[in-house]
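Entry 14. Two folds queued back to back today. First construct below, sequence then structure tokens.
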Amino acid sequence: IRLPVLFEVKHRPWLRGLRETIIKTKPDVIMVHGTGSFNLIRCALISKYLNIPCIADNHMIFHIIQKNVFAKLYYILNRLLLKNLIIDLVYKFIGVTNETCSYLEKYEKIPKEKIFHLPLGIDEEIFKYKKVNSYEKKIFVITQTGKMSDDKKPQWLADAAINLIKQKKLNLVLNYIGGGPKNIVKNIEKKFERENLQKNLIIRDFVEVEKLPNVYYESDICVYPNGTSLSALEAAACGSLVIMADYPASKDRESKGIGITYRTGDIEHLASLIEKLLLNRDLREKIIDNSVKAIQKEYSYKEISKKFTTLCFEAINYKRSHL
């Protein structure tokens, strides 16, 4: 059900008809995205009116927290709202990473016993593992999927790839899937033109989700130079080796056996890791094998939905026992 937006403040919409729509659907549980939105306040009060549990989630990670005057004021007001109105009306606050759980506790002052870790997952019906022939390749394919926006730093990967081609004499193609702002795309194209390496660069617009696995199957390594993209999990699930920026969420994935991290923004380190992995087939296959197993165990929709369903039943039973 899509509801019209009455107004919006800092990407936080006020949905028209929210209360009436929820009451009409007669839910057993209300699940709200975001702990700093109008929706949480409204849904928490609606859940109280209906005598049903409310659960909220949060996706925040430390490196994107804003620290300007507006942000500081926001956190003060949000803590007051949470403490005095919302916390007692919400059964659990879900953090999608361990870092998010720490954020909820440190910045939003949510009691630890109210926080529940439930990671984001991937659709294993779409992103299936497929073993690719492990012969020695003449041309390696390095891929970055997702929008080529500045916060994803595709230019860092471009610099690393050019270094590997020019200095290390590796025969590789850099493959971007997702398109992006014209200035960033043009800047990367010019980098390759200056080195006469146009044939080593491919930039394509977004592809349909169902076709993404083929992109990953054709890639030797998928690199996510900045951020903590869910695309890294999708690539790993399909059997592509992933390199991620060393933010806590990615290091947590690495600790579970998924991919490998590099020092964020260190282009020489990124290039050296790519070189090492391309030239060591056994190491690549070992990391890929560990990644696929970890994804299937920790990050599949099937496993995560079981945990979420269990949480919902716990919330319902708790609410009924406290009527």
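Second construct, same run, same settings:
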Amino acid sequence: PAMAVQLVQVAIVAAPLVGRVLISDHQGLFGYVRNRAPLFDGLRSAGIDATSRVVLAGELEDAIRGGMPTAGITAGTDFALEGLSLVNAWYRGAQTPALGAPSLHKRYGSYEALISWEDGLKYMTPSALDVLGVTHVLAFDDDTEAVRWAAGLTQVTVLALPGGHRVSVFRNDDAWPKAVLLEETKVDLEPPLREGCPALTVFCRDFEPLSRAPRSTLAIDWQGSRASIDLPAGHPGGRLFVSVRAGANPVATIDGAPRDVQTSMGTFAIVEIRPSDEVVVLSVAERRSMTLTLFGIGLLAVSLMLALAVSTPVDAHGLAATHETS
């Protein structure tokens, strides 16, 4: 009887939803689940790919975090599933003080780190967008504040999405790639915080002097947490600047020999480059975290094996006799 009641409850709840999907398909309900992703299709048509770095500006961030099913997106993490890099982030079980502050939500507290529009991203200046490699900004086209903030960028298109949403796509033509060779060794790679800027993250730093530094664009090939960077022939040397979070103990080898790695702004990697250097291999993996994770997995495996080794099969007849005597 209980199962019958549950089936009736499921039918009552599910029937209207299924009906809307099958009968009123123009609404696009559950579009993402049904492999319909008009937002991501539009972004790719606008030139956004795996090499891009995207910021959600203004009200669009809250809309995507809450889910826009008619546009084929359930949450910001869908960008990762689509192979696109989103700067806005809500990390659980991680702390990134240089990029975002812990949440004050009682459920997660310091176990959640936020990189959000209101708490930091909206304070970026044009030079910060350039140096940090932000290639694109997305905003609702009627969000006056966000559109005004992106006014210095090139508007590529406006995506008309199901549900009446209209998203403006802006491109930053001056965005740095994730790896550059800075030829000027005296340039300050610890830009100071701008006076009056309320955040303490990299988004409030003064990148104007750094943005004017002579540099060479480098191709970077990522394989997991390792990057291979080929230096151009005849380069003068300088400092390699990689605008990817480097972790606590980044490691570099150049032409097979180890080289010290420094950090910039508490998060990015810097490697001194000599004119004779050719190939840099950089690992930004959190070695301590990896070791603790492997230790935890090993401990769990040992515990399971011990539990199986000491367990004895249950004799059904003996168990029944025990109940009768008791």
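Quick look at the second one. The CA atoms of residues 241 and 281 lie 13 Å apart. The two ends are 32 Å apart (CA to CA).
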